[in-house]
Amino acid sequence: MFHGSMVALVTPMEEDGFICESALERLVEFHVSQGTDAIVAVGTTGESATLDVDEHCRVLRLVVEFAAGRVPVIAGTGANSTAEAIDLTRVAMQMGVDACLLVTPYYNKPTQEGLYRHYRAIAEAVPIPQILYNVPGRTAVDLLPETVERLANISNIVGLKEATGDLDRARLLLERCGDRLDLYSGDDATSLEFMLAGGKGIISVTANVAPEAMHRMCAAALAGDRAAAIAADAPVKALHQALFVESNPIPVKWALHDMGLIPPGIRLPLTPLSAALHAPLREALQAAGIPLGSCQ
């Protein structure tokens, strides 16, 4: 349903932590002009964990408004409470998003049966396309392939963002349910091989700063053109590592500020990028041919 380079969009903030609407509009225009295939708003990279419900909904409403139908909008609506996830997903659908991305319930560590019932309850309650999101490094719970396979039988569960970076896991998922679900990489560093194996795209952090390159890489990989995909990926390959030198979205927000696209704000408990990491990240941006703004 959704293919290619899907940016895991940051939520731009002023230095005092307030959401910057003008920068959010600038980012949406940047992605439309650079060929990004879909915008994922208020996910992990969008600091969903520190936005209150009103802010969460406000960002979704603004992104839908700014995108104006020119690019699909996927809303992060996951929660560790099934009832809250249902409420957020319903509100997002009413706002006009194209699909919802639902992270596994974090902290409370449900069983596989609990995960299955959680996602089934949301899908049955809200008739919008839904994408599962597995990122055990953050949530302390792993959505196993056999549970994904069960969920693939639910008609409006249309995809899975698999962010383990484990290509063996990706191949197993593709084999077991790739005919029923679109499978997306959630790991920039392994996304090229994920797509060449049969994945349909990536929900990307790197696409925040290099949207055109990520779009070209995805297009080539989806076409099965390994050489062209490798060539497109080569300039940004170092960014796949450099943007994770501290917890996401710390590095990518610093990079976007250095590019002159957003203010410097980030919310506690996240802190600005450590000073010792500025030069290496800037070198990776420059190696990728990314123009920097006046924030140096």
TrEMBL record:
SUPFAM superfamilies: Aldolase. It is found in: Cytoplasm. The record marks A49, N80, E84, Y106 as: L-lysine inhibitor binding. The record marks T44, Y107 as: Part of a proton relay during catalysis. SMART domains: DHDPS. Keywords: Amino-acid biosynthesis, Cytoplasm, Diaminopimelate biosynthesis, Lyase, Lysine biosynthesis, Schiff base. It catalyses: L-aspartate 4-semialdehyde + pyruvate = (2S,4S)-4-hydroxy-2,3,4,5-tetrahydrodipicolinate + H2O + H(+). It comes from the Bacteria. One of its GO terms (cellular component) is cytosol. Pathway: Amino-acid biosynthesis; L-lysine biosynthesis via DAP pathway; (S)-tetrahydrodipicolinate from L-aspartate: step 3/4. It holds the Pfam family DHDPS. One of its GO terms (biological process) is diaminopimelate biosynthetic process. Pyruvate binds at T45, I203. The keyword Lyase applies. The keyword Isomerase does not apply. Its EC number is 4.3.3.7. HAMAP family: DapA (MF_00418). Homotetramer; dimer of dimers. Belongs to the DapA family. PANTHER family: 4-HYDROXY-2-OXOGLUTARATE ALDOLASE, MITOCHONDRIAL (PTHR12128:SF66), DIHYDRODIPICOLINATE SYNTHASE (PTHR12128). Catalyzes the condensation of (S)-aspartate-beta-semialdehyde [(S)-ASA] and pyruvate to 4-hydroxy-tetrahydrodipicolinate (HTPA). This is 4-hydroxy-tetrahydrodipicolinate synthase. It comes from Ectothiorhodospira magna.
